[in-house]
Amino acid sequence: MNTAEALDTLGVKTDAISDEQRRQLDDDGFFVAEAFFSKKATDEMRSEFDRLREIEGDFGGHEVHIEPGAPRLSNLFNKSPAFDRCLACAPTLAAAHHLLGEIHTYSLNARNPLQGQGQQVLHSDVPRTAPDDWRVVNSMIMLDDMTEENGATRVVPGSHRWVSLNVPDVNMAEVKHIEVTPEDRKIMPEDAEAPYPGELLLTGEAGTVAVINGHTWHGGTANRSGAPRRVLHLAIGRRDIPQQSVERDFLTDSLYERTNDAMKYLLDIEGAEPKIRGYPPLPTEARVWTAAEAVDKAS
Ligand SMILES: O=C(O)CCC(=O)C(=O)O
Ligand SMILES: [Fe+2]
Q1: Cα atoms in the Cβ-side hemisphere of radius 13 Å centred on 34
Q2: 40 DSSP assignment
Q3: pLDDT tens digits, 158-195
Q4: Tell me, what DSSP letter sits at residue 46?
């Protein structure tokens, strides 16, 4: 199996993204695919988000990090078959194959900023050690309408070519240190939570998928209206970069049993031994991540 074969089996065609979307990804570092998921698919994923949030409460997101003011969930492939369809999310997967070549899943998380909260520091999800060392394509699968009022994701066009910014430590992989030149310093924001010149908000109706190069400077914004903003983050990584959610370590018997060879290839669980029976266990304590912490590390 290889990525081209897996994507073909899953019905993801290389022309699933248009020439214009490919150009936007290359030049701007992001594009938006409107109305990709049907209402039925979106409704089902949204109600699973709610069901799992009930189960996980304060521990939601514990496998990666818990974010005060923005309830999260992680390890979602293992938690509900409703998310299996994300393995055929053509805009994300075609973009990832285009940019990264051989791929596997990086993570499937979810996030819902609460009223008045959720402003994140501007950040790159992953570091980069050479100009074209692209590592991750991330995407926001909108389960609610994402508007300028309810905490849309902001992006800075063209910033995927700039220095890596405020990369969360869980995503640093082998990179120990990000080289920052005096030229870089000039464009790096003094206040990473503040609006950045030229930033845009990614908005769309439920079912829309916004795809970004994981290196593009971006971040969640505050939910001013309080309307729910449930979003899945489907991140796909270059296959030689370790997964954020190492699926072999989290694997449930249910996910292993219901996935075909192409899905197993993308999840990187071919021949793996399921470790978990039933619902993945919740911890008794978990890591909290705050914007302030990211900036401390960066300075
Ligand atoms: O939920 C969002 O709008 C973006 C979140 C994000 O970039 C992150 O948590 O890394
Ligand atoms: Fe991010």
Answers
A1: 3
A2: H
A3: 999 999 999 999 999 999 999 999 999 999 999 999 99
A4: H
**Position in ligand 1 atom list of the atom nearest CA 138:** 7
Ligand 1 atom nearest the C-alpha of 220 is 3
Per residue in 241-272, pLDDT (tens digit) is 999 999 999 999 999 999 999 999 999 999 99
**Domains in the chain with CATH codes:** 3-298 (2.60.120.620)
- For ligand 1, whether the C-beta of 280 sits within 6 Å is no
Task: Locate the DSSP E strands across the chain.
Answer: 30-33, 72-73, 103-111, 136-142, 153-155, 200-202, 209-213, 218-220, 231-238
Pairing state of beta strands 136-142 and 231-238?
A: antiparallel
Instruction: State the CB neighbour count (10 A cutoff) for residue 189.
Output: 18
Residue with tokens 């998380």, as numbered in its chain: 109
